[in-house]
Design a protein that fits this description.
66 residues; 29% strand
C-alpha cells in the first residue's frame, strides 16, 4: 500500500489489536486490517520508523480492550 501523508501537520495514527487481527487507521479513517500469528502471547509495544524519516510522537495511549 502506498499512501501520501502530509509532512507539515500532526497525524493521528491508530492501531487496534484483537488477538492476531490488527486494524490500522489514520485520521480516524480505516486504512486496512491484517493478521499476524507470529506472536501468540502478551508482549510489549515498540514504535519504528524508516531511517530517513524525521518522526515525532506526542502521545502514546494504550487501552486494554474488554
Amino acid at each position: 500500500m502506498s499512501l501520501q501523508v502530509p509532512s507539515d501537520i500532526w497525524q493521528v495514527f491508530g492501531l487496534r489489536a484483537e488477538g492476531d487481527k490488527f486494524t490500522i487507521t489514520l485520521g480516524g479513517k480505516e486504512l486496512f486490517t491484517t493478521t499476524d500469528r507470529r506472536f501468540t502471547g502478551p508482549g510489549r509495544v515498540a514504535l519504528w520508523t524508516k531511517a530517513d524519516s524525521v518522526t515525532h510522537f506526542d502521545r502514546l495511549t494504550i487501552t486494554r480492550l474488554p
